[in-house]
Amino acid sequence: MGAEPTVVAINGSERIGGNTAEVLGYAAARFAARGVRLDVVELARTDFTACGPCGECNTRTETCRQADDMPGIVRRMIAADGIIYATPVHGFGTASLMQQFIERAGVGYLRFARPLTNKVGGVVVVGRRYSHVDVHAQLLHNVMLNRMLLVGSGFPAVVHAGDRGEALADREGVDAVTRLVDRMTDMIHLLHEHRRMTGHDLPVPGSNERVLR
């Protein structure tokens, strides 16, 4: 099959080693058992600037000029076979760090050539008892905006947890994460086989909202 398939997970939690990280640790072990490496980007450990008041994003046709870790994160995503957006629920919505990432990465880099097209996409949401599905839907829309491939895996991968260490006790949530990992892995292996048999990747749409000059 060639190089080991890789999935990049964006951990949008502000807490190092929290429940979201624990769930991704479980996912990494599950991926590894099936020959896929999970590369976790912990946004809390990175240095990137939130979108500011420059006001250029709706008119500029080149990538963002901020000098920080964002270009490197985007390069890791582009090199991967799949992408997982993983975030806790904060204040009945997406954790602020993940929201900042979506804005900077999307408007500053991803919208020009849609380089995540045909990556296998997935979403994991962790929180107590509220707004999981709302946050899941927002991130799912972002996956579709970036033209990734979604694989149905049953119920959304939402995990109920409050205090640290509770995430893996949610058996139904962990089961949903397991099915997400397995379905993403199946699709990644299928795409590798398609490439091996045909010598081609899946078609990429030619039109886009922005043109990179």
From TrEMBL:
Domain NADPH-dependent FMN reductase-like: 6-161
Spans traversing the lipid bilayer: none
Keyword DNA repair: no
Keywords: Flavoprotein, FMN
Pfam families noted in UniProt: FMN_red
Keyword Flavoprotein annotated: yes
Alphabetized PANTHER family for the sequence: NAD(P)H-DEPENDENT FMN-CONTAINING OXIDOREDUCTASE YWQN-RELATED
Protein name: Multimeric flavodoxin WrbA
